[in-house]
Design goal:
By secondary structure, this protein is an alpha/beta fold. Helix content is about 35%, strand content about 20%. The strands form two sheets. Strands 13-12-11-7-10-9-8-14 form an eight-stranded mixed sheet, with helices on one face. Strands 3-2-1-4-5-6 form a six-stranded parallel sheet, sandwiched between helices. The two termini are about 40 Å apart. The structure holds nicotinamide-adenine-dinucleotide.
């Protein structure tokens, strides 16, 4: 959904004179105006009193024009170095294919910028480790795009864990079924290519869930996995399943495919006292009294969550439910919210996207001089787990942690290496 930059009253030092709690308005530039660009541009919109999308760069002039027309980006470049050279840009987002991240992150850091690097941090664990080593010269200046850590249901789960409500972790079940229509995987030119994306459904999609698992359960000690290319015309895997053992003893199973007829995302994290269910929030506990206690504690800790108030009666409740469903930034939803609002119900404010929550945490950190959230170091374990899943799937063996440069997949999987992967019961490989 497009938005128009509204003029803000800004003085010559770049300080906002109106409606900006912390004063400084940061300039932001995005390198890469492909699919994820829209989520970034829309995610920044509610924060426009604190950060402004000033420039975009892309090798492809058509994509650049589309982005700038749609989001009214004042400055566009086909050479990212021109964007990095601007003094009015404080933060640079890298939204290009994974194998380009290392070079672009380092160039942006050298240009003195804060950096938001899209996931995965890099296309191989080796490349990620080079970025991490370089971070010693730029401490706290890079955030990696694991915006799902800022999802309200995940934050509630972490809060309950940290306050001892869930008990020791026992089990996790993480599942993401995606429907990729037509050529949406192969058509990008890079999706599923080992030397560009570093993998398929595991590295490019499920890495979000792998990061969440580690975020919730802690360090991994062992993984056993299978992966295959069952349907898509891509080099790497479109389907996988894995079992993971964590250092605290808990076990998680996880799976994902991009070949599903429709999309479904489901996470369950089970503690000895209670279980949490995400992304749609659920909390379960056999002891009803304890469950009420937990819900009361959550209501105190997260006062902004909950359902909108209905006016009165069944009609009011129905209208409030409609408004709740219409939350979001889409143009059609905004128009419909207004229409429903005209018939006497005050619309609930739209929920911020996970990207907005992530950007807000980044701006808060910059304002207070803290390291940016989701550092490359904290994003590494998910890369390590991806690599271990590939190593296990290719060898048919369990893989023990930690992984280092001695692992066969540390420098990435090759197309030939994947072709020779372990296949079940001696059956011939499927691709
Ligand atoms: N956080 C999320 O939920 C999420 C979702 C989708 C994609 N992503 C990540 O975002 C990144 C981009 O994915 P996408 O789906 O938008 O890809 P895309 O192919 O749609 O867009 C990438 C763009 O980068 C441009 N580009 C490539 N190299 C460049 C360079 N050196 N300088 C300038 N522009 C360059 C390409 O021309 C293209 O327009 C990937 O790392 C991907 O994994 C993250």
């Amino acid at each position: 959904m497009a938005y128009r930059l509204e003029p803000l009253e800004i003085n010559r030092l770049g300080q906002c004179l109106e409606g900006c709690p912390m004063g400084k308005v940061y300039g932001l530039g995005i390198i890469g105006t492909g699919v994820i660009f829209d989520s970034h541009a829309n995610g920044l919109e509610p924060l426009k009193s604190r950060v402004r999308l000033i420039a975009a760069a892309d090798l492809d002039p058509k994509r650049l024009k589309r982005a700038s027309d749609r989001y009214f980006v004042p400055h566009t470049y086909t050479d990212h170095r021109a964007l990095l050279g601007r003094d009015d840009i404080d933060i640079v987002t890298i939204a290009t294919p994974p194998s380009t991240h290392e070079v672009l992150v380092l160039e942006a850091l050298q240009a003195g910028k804060y950096v938001i690097c899209e996931k995965p941090l890099a296309h191989t664990l080796e490349s990620a480790d080079r970025i991490i080593a370089e971070m010693a010269n730029y401490p706290g200046k890079v955030a990696v795009g694991f915006q799902q850590r800022f999802m309200p249901s995940v934050q509630k789960a972490v809060w309950l864990r940290d306050h001892g409500f869930l008990g020791d972790w026992q089990y996790g079940l993480f599942r993401r079924l995606s429907h990729f229509s037509g050529s949406s995987a192969s058509g990008t030119g890079w999706w599923g290519k080992w030397d560009v994306s570093g993998g398929g459904v595991v590295m490019t999609q499920f890495i979000h869930e792998l990061d969440l698992m580690i975020h919730l359960f802690g360090p991994v000690v062992e993984v056993m996995a299978m992966a295959d290319t069952l349907h898509q015309d891509i080099e790497s895997e479109d389907t996988f399943g894995a079992t993971i053992r964590f250092a605290n003893g808990a076990i998680a199973t996880c799976c994902s495919t991009i070949n599903a007829p429709s999309s479904l995302v489901m996470y369950e994290a089970v503690g000895a006292q209670a279980s949490v269910h995400m992304p749609t929030w659920g909390l379960r506990c056999a002891d009803g009294h304890r469950l009420r206690e937990m819900n009361a504690a959550l209501a105190d800790a997260f006062p902004e969550s909950g359902t909108p108030k209905a006016s009165s009666g069944a009609v009011g409740r129905f209208k409030a439910k409609v408004l709740w469903k219409l939350q979001g930034a889409g143009a059609a939803k905004k128009v419909m919210r207004k229409a429903v609002g005209l018939v006497g119900i005050r619309p609930a404010p739209p929920e911020p996207s996970n990207h907005t929550r992530f950007f807000q945490a980044i701006l808060d950190a910059i304002d207070s001089g803290e390291p940016l959230p989701v550092s490359p170091q904290s994003a590494r374990p998910a890369m390590e787990l991806c690599t271990a899943i590939y190593a296990s799937a290719l060898s048919g063996q369990p893989v023990l942690f930690p992984l280092d440069s001695s692992n066969a997949c540390y420098k990435g999987v090759t197309t030939d290496g994947y072709r020779q992967r372990h296949s079940y019961a001696g059956q011939s490989n499927l691709v």
